Amino acid sequence: MERAAGTGSGGDDDELVLPPASFQDGLPSSRSYPSCIGGGSAAAASASLERELLYRAELHQQQLGGGGGVERRKRRAMKNRESAERSRARKQAYLQELEQEVRLLRAENAALRHQCHQLKAAAAEAEAEAAAAAAAAKKSTSSATF
Description:
Layout: E1 2-3, E2 16-17, E3 23-24, E4 27-28, H1 42-64, H2 68-142
């Protein structure tokens, strides 16, 4: 916003001058001034103009980084918190999945160890039977005299 040309800084008639409503700071404006012609009241036009001035002042502050930076930091901090929460949830789910897999593998390992012991016992028994059968066969063939 600029001061009107030719007015003193200490005068009572200082007026703020706005750029045209259709273009400010290189951005086209989507807002326009109300028309006082055609039955609009002066009070309504004045209130609308005041709202427009406040809107543009806030927009200007945000563009300069005055008030918008705080909100932007708050939004970014909130998004970071949400992202961290999602990351922790994914990590927790992954750890639970790994723990379940460990339980399954330990159970499978125990079953395989038991099966291995049974097979070793069966192999030892079969070997003992084979040795006994071989000894009996040798004894029956070696008892013949020549």
